[in-house]
Amino acid sequence: MPEFPSVTLRDPSSTLTATYVPVAGMICTSLADDGVEFLGQRRGLNAYVTAGKTMGIPILYPWANRLSATKYGISGAVVSLTVGTGGVRADEHGAPIHGVLAAYPGWLVTEMSENSLTAVLDYGGRPRLLATFPFPHVLTQHITLAGRTLTIETTVMPTTAASVPLCFGYHPYFMIPGVPREEWIVTTPDMRRLPVDNWGIPTGETEDWHAGNEPLKTAEYDDGFDQVPEGAAFALSGGDRRIEVKFEKGYPAAQLFAPRNDDVVCIEPMAAPTDALRRGNYRVAAPGKPETARFSITVS
């Protein structure tokens, strides 16, 4: 397996560490407390780099989750996506999934300290990327580890007169070490569930989802939501451990993913619901008005 340079963030006040690999798409590969890992490693970093098989905390950009077709319209124009070209990957049904930045090597680290990391990607300077998402902008990730909280800020700054659709997200794979999956507790806020079809695409129907603490047991989740309140908190807990995910700003949608064949639970912050890039139900970053989204992960 090839070696990929990594950066490990530490805060002197805590034993928690966060490890990032900028050359592999700014993925977070580890969130560990004194060596005890809280992120699902799944097939590992090499499979992410070579085949886009997600693990840790990858960014999903410029769209999160699936699109219902390989074309989308913007201002009267149509953008066509070709699976296998320009970073476009497909799920088992052929639906484009998770954007085009999986393991993308073009991030530039601009600032770094013991407990923080900033990296930028000039999307407008990459013809391969613009072919699939023709909106020139600069994308910035600013990561901070303070005490027992990892905060991830993402800023989209348009660089031309074109507004940039905000449909991205993150896909954290969480686990509670030393506690059986059946005993994990999933905590969710009030929000709205978006039922999906057999391809994982929202049907257009909606259901109220009430806040609660539910034992995972043998449940399987692959559920999308919108109307997530700003500042809403999700959590995964078990034994004496708890992971809280706070949607601090700019993430009004979410996905919960808990497969039966893997001991992980994903609490995914999303700037827009699944398939928003095709349906138009998204916010934009307007020229001269960069937009920043922020979520945090606290391990206790």
Structure overview:
This is Aldose 1-epimerase. InterPro entries: Aldose_1/G6P_1-epimerase (IPR008183), Gal_mutarotase_sf_dom (IPR011013), GH-type_carb-bd (IPR014718). It comes from Mycolicibacterium agri. One of its GO terms (molecular function) is isomerase activity. This protein is mainly beta. The protein has one domain (7-299): Beta-galactosidase, Chain A, domain 5 (Distorted Sandwich), CATH 2.70.98. 5% of the residues lie in helices and 43% in strands. The chain has helices at residues 45-51, 127-130, 276-279, and strands at residues 7-10, 16-21, 27-33, 36-37, 59-60, 71-74, 77-80, 108-112, 116-122, 137-146, 149-158, 164-166, 169-170, 173-174, 185-188, 191-194, 207-209, 212-215, 221-226, 232-238, 241-249, 253-258, 265-270, 283-285, 291-299. The strands form 6 sheets. A 9-stranded antiparallel beta sheet has the order 8-9-10-11-25-21-20-15-18, with no helix packed on it. Strand 1 and strand 2 form a beta hairpin. The two termini are 33 Å apart. The model has no long low-confidence stretch (mean pLDDT 96).
